[in-house]
Amino acid sequence: MKKFNYEAKDQATNKVVKATIQAESESSAARLLVKQGFVPLSIKEINEQGNFIGKITGRITTKDRVMLSRQLATLIGAGLPLSQSLHTVLEQTENKQLRSVVEDIAASVEGGRSLSESFGKYPKVFDEVFISLIAAGELSGTLDESLRRIADQQEKDASVSSKIRGAMTYPIIVLVVIFAVMAFMLFTVVPQVEKLYEDLGKELPFLTMMMVGMANFLKDFWWLAILVVGAGIYFLIQYLQTDSGIAFKDNFKLKAPIVGGMFQKLYMARFARTGQTLLSSGVAMLDMLKITGRAVNNTVLKKSIDRATEKVQGGKALSVALTPEDAILPLVPQMIKIGEQSGRIDEMMGRVAKVYEDELDEQIKTISTAIEPVLMVVLAVVAGGMVGAILLPIYSLVNGINI
After folding, report:
1. Same domain, yes or no, for 315 and 381?
2. Helices 96-110 and 82-92, packing angle to 10 deg
3. Is the distance from CB of 161 to CB of 271 less than 8 angstroms?
4. pLDDT digits (tens, 9 = 90+) for 263-291
5. 241 partner at 20 to 30 Å CA-CA among 103, 204, 291, 395?
6. Quick check: 264 and 254 in contact, CB under 8 A?
7. Rounded to two decimals, what is the model's pTM?
C-alpha cells in the first residue's frame, strides 16, 4: 500500500483540501477521493524511507492498540458506519506510525476488504488473537463487543507482564550499583594503595595484589574486555534466536528458582484469559486452542497445548486432554472440567485467569519484599570485601610504623 499527498476540492464546501491518502496506486487513490466527495486536483506519491529514530519514537504500544480498540468499539456501538468510524479514529490518533496503519486499514475497508483482513495486513502490530476476535465479531454481528474484549484482554495481559518486569527492575539496579562501586574502587582507590606500598618498598597483600592486577589489566586492555563482553552478548542474543536457544530460554523461565513460579502463573493467566476472550466471542474450541498455543509465547507450553488440541480433535474433553501435561498447572483442567459440566467453559477460564493474576500479585509483592535484604547483603559483602582489601594493607602499614 502506497501513500500519496493530494489536493482536492471538497464538493460540499468548494474548499481545496490538502492531505494524505493510502491506496494501491494513483488511480485507486483518485477513486477513493471521488467516493469521499472530493474532486482530485493533484496526487503525488510519497517516497518514505523512514529513519531509525522515527521507528523508535513512533513505536505502536499496547496502550495505542487498547485506545484504538475502545474508540472503534464506542463508535461502531453508537451506530456509525465502519468506514466513518475508522476515519474518526484516525483524526484522534496522535501516534504517526499508527495513523499510517489506520489510514491503510480505512483504505482497505473502503476498497472492499473485511476489517479482519485489513488488520491482518499488519501481523507485527496486531497479533493473531486480535485478528481472530475481530473476525468472530464480524461473523456474529457483535464487532463492538469483540473490540471491547480485545481491549480488556490486552490491558490485563500488559498489566501482569508489567508487574513482573517491575519486580525484576530493583535487582538489576542493585547489580548495576555493585559493578559501579567495584569500578570506582578499582580505578581510583586501589592505584593509590599500590603507589603507597611502592613508595615504602613493601609487598602488597595477596587480595590487594589481585585487585591491582585486575585494575591494571582493565586499564591497559579495556578494549579487549569490551570486545569479549560485546562478543559474548552478541553470540548469546544470536543463540537465543535459534530454535534450541528459544527452547532453552522458555524452559529456563518455567524452572528457574524464585521467578519460575511467577512465569508459570503468568502463562496460565494468559492462556486462560485469552481462551475466555476467544470462546466468549464465538471462536470454535479447536481454533481457540491453536491461537492460545501461539499467544502464550512459550514453546514448552505451546507443545503441551498442541498435544491437548490433537486429543480434543480426537474426541476427548479439554479438561481430560490438559490433565497429563506437566506444563499446565492442575487448577486449569479442574476448573475447565466444572465449565464443561455447566456449559460455561469461557466463564471458568476467566475465573482461572483471575485466580492466577491475584496469586501473581501476591507472589510479586512477597518476592520484592524478600529480595531487598538479600541484595543488600550481597552489596555489603562485595563493597566490604573491596574496602577490606584496601584498608587492611593500610592498617598493616600503620602497625609496622608503630613497631
Report:
1. yes
2. 170
3. no
4. 898 899 889 988 888 888 888 899 889 88
5. 291
6. yes
7. 0.68
